[in-house]
Amino acid sequence: MIVLLYSLLNKGGKEMTTIQVTLNSIDKVKTFVNLVSRYDSDFDLVSGRYVIDAKSIMGIFSLDLSKPIELNIHDQSIVDEVKSALNDFIIE
Questions:
Q1: Measured between alpha carbons, how far is 39 from 26 in angstroms, rounded to an integer?
Q2: What pLDDT, in 10s, does the model give residues 18-43?
Q3: How far, in Å, CA of 33 to CA of 12, rounded?
Q4: Strand pairing of 43-47 and 17-21?
Q5: HSE (CB half, 13 Å, CA atoms) of 80?
Q6: Can you give the pTM of this predicted structure?
């Protein structure tokens, strides 16, 4: 509920897509940040009560990376492209 409220307040109430990802190594984090940084869109990572910018490598390392993390994609027009690019990180 807090994530939804955050989304409505900070993203203008636009729809978002959430997927589960795993970032359990330094190399995976670096690759992930490089991939999402290619897009001008907003991405958030949610772990428990923490919400951080998915393009922030320092922010990602502040999370518990031993567990799956939610990735919120705030641009519906690129969801399929992002899912394809991040296929190796997605937990089905």
A1: 21
A2: 999 999 999 999 999 999 999 999 99
A3: 24
A4: unpaired
A5: 1
A6: 0.82
**What is the tens place of the pLDDT at every residue in 43-89?**
999 999 999 999 999 999 999 999 999 999 999 999 999 999 999 99
Q: Which two tokens stand for residue 60?
A: 């990602």
Listing DSSP states for 50-90 in one string gives: EEEETT-HHHHHTS-TTS-EEEEE--GGGHHHHHHHTTTTB
User: For residues 88 and 57, what is the distance between their CA atoms, to the nearest angstrom?
Assistant: 18
CATH fold for the domain made of 2-85: Histidine-containing Protein; Chain: A; (3.30.1340)
**Region of 47 on the Ramachandran plot (φ > 0 left; ψ -120 to 50 alpha; else beta):** beta
Residues facing 47 on adjacent strands: 50
